[in-house]
Design goal:
Blueprint (H helix, E strand, L loop, with lengths): L1 E5 L6 H12 L5 E4 L10 H11 L2 E2 L3 H7 L7 H20 L1 H12 L4 E4 L2 E4 L15 H4 L1 H8 L5 E3 L7 E4 L3 E3 L8 E4 L5 E4 L13 E7 L7 E8 L3 H10 L5 H9 L2
Parallel strand pairs: 1-2, 2-3, 5-6, 6-10
Antiparallel strand pairs: 1-11, 4-5, 7-8, 7-10, 9-12, 11-12
Helix pairs in contact: 3-4, 4-5, 8-9
Bound molecules: zinc ion.
The site of zinc ion has 7 residues, from loops.
Length: about 260
């Protein structure tokens, strides 16, 4: 089975639409989402509706939590964006109460962790599923952290949150997609690893293109294959929308152009 893994959309509709169109051309059976559907970007309602429609399930990210419940540990731009985002959902629900009910129901049932065929899926990390960051640097600087995190799942783990795509291996290495042959990682049956598909709507690894991954569980000899994909999309549309909304800090648009 081929499963597309998307994460960290952050209300970037232009990026989400481009990624979904690309997924539709790659013989994928289903899509899952690792959270942070909203926050930062200009199209929260449309992004939430598209994820609800297209994904089999979605996790609750720290920004989803911030918008729905309370923004904790946010800088002022993120906090202001969270309150603005909540107001968009309230306004949309007033305009169409039935769609509003359905949307609140979907958002209110975002999951904190999912075990998907021995892939433990969390937004942050298995220790603190909503908020802990697992950065590429941790593979070098933080061996105990990685060891502790690897102790919390049996086979494979999928995370988002940092907006940095790649693979952590049990021997404390981190592989960026561009360091892998054809941006593809092969998972042996007994191997453990942590996969981050990167961010659809706000990449931070210096490459502004949208990022996502496809997990293929029929790669032969009990092996699984993770393909990383990068996709150009119309960034200017999203940047212009952000710049036109006073409550969204201009920098939230500018950073998209640089992938930071
Ligand atoms: Zn995020």
């Amino acid at each position: 089975m081929r499963t597309a893994i998307i994460s960290d959309i952050h209300s970037n509709l232009s990026a989400l639409e481009a990624v979904l169109a690309d997924i539709d051309q790659r013989k994928v059976q289903r899509i899952i989402c690792l959270g942070d559907l909203i926050g930062y970007g200009p199209d929260p309602v449309a992004c939430a509706d598209l994820v609800a429609e297209r994904c089999e399930w979605s996790l609750l990210g720290n920004h989803d939590f911030g918008v729905l419940y309370e923004p904790t540990n946010f800088n002022s731009a993120a906090e202001q964006a969270a309150y603005w985002t909540r107001r968009q959902f309230e306004a949309a629900a007033k305009e169409d109460t039935i769609a509003g009910e359905r949307r609140w129901n979907f958002l209110g049932h975002l999951k904190v962790r999912v075990n998907d065929n021995n892939y433990l899926c969390v937004h942050g990390s298995p220790r603190r599923p909503i908020n802990e960051y697992l950065f590429p640097d941790d593979a070098i600087n933080n061996p105990h952290k990685l060891e502790s995190i690897f102790g919390r799942f049996d086979r494979m783990c999928l995370v988002g949150h940092t907006h940095h795509p790649g693979v952590f291996t049990e021997d404390q290495e981190f592989w960026k997609p561009e360091e892998l042959p054809e941006s593809t990682f092969i998972v042996d049956p007994l191997q453990k690893g942590i996969i981050n598909p990167g961010s659809v709507g706000q990449p931070r690894d210096g490459d502004p293109r949208a990022s996502y991954a496809i997990l293929d569980t029929d790669a032969g000899e009990d092996k699984h294959r993770i393909e990383f994909h990068r996709l150009p999309y119309d960034i200017d549309i999203t940047v212009a929308k952000i710049h036109a909304i006073p409550e969204l800090h201009d920098w939230l648009g500018d950073r998209l152009l640089e992938g930071r």
